[in-house]
Amino acid sequence: xxxxxxxxxxxxxxxxxxxxxxxxxxxxxxxxxxxxxxxxxxxxxxxxxxxxxxxxxxxxxxxxxxxxxxxxxxxx
Length: 76
Known about the structure:
Blueprint: H1 2-12, E1 16-21, E2 27-33, H2 36-47, E3 50-58, E4 65-72
Antiparallel strand pairs: 1-2, 2-4, 3-4
């Protein structure tokens, strides 16, 4: 039980991201986290300014994973 609690605690703080191709055929960032604010913070650190393309939630309760698909604004 202690191992499970430790695993849940560590994964609850995790934020991951990967580059993927978005619906318009360009590069987008897919960010996964347990708290939506963490996803927004990661998007800002990766992109500066960005547009949210899609969001979704998977799971239930404490096991919910938020997925945020963003497109970084082009640098001018």
